[in-house]
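User: Please predict the structure of the protein below. I'd like the answer in structure-token form so I can feed it into my own downstream comparison script.

Assistant: Understood. Taking the following sequence of 154 residues as input:
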Amino acid sequence: MSSQQSRLVTFLFTDIEGSTRRWETDADTMQVALEAHDETLRQAIARCGGRVFKHTGDGICAVFGSPHAAVDAAVAAQRCLELPVRMGIATGEAQERGNDYFGPVLNRAARVMSAGHGGQILVDGLTAGRGVGKTRLALETEAQLVGSSRTVSG
């Protein structure tokens, strides 16, 4: 991707629910669990053609060429993770600069993720509208994202 052009991509953002409490309670156990978490996500993302472009301490940000690939990676990872991980997926135009991405879709992915709870995968409306909605994730509810006019399904 050219550093000057934007294109349509899908982002997967993850976050371990309650990680601060886990670190404070038992740092050694959390370190081992975090390493397993990171490896599980890396493998699921790579198998589905995605790329991790950022670590957030207790989560990751990954990019995919299609919504289906992002959802497949999220589902595969959730099935293996032992920690409660919330996941948010959003599709939209983004610009790649260096090894990072920029654009409103990243803000949306973060908001979608933060609307969830450990063990959940939430997708934004554009991702759901591209054929990965109810049939792939058995979506049952809708919630309005804070600070956004868009709806998140989950």
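That's the full token string. The beta strands are 6-16, 51-55, 60-64, 85-97, 100-102, 121-124, 142-144, 151-153.
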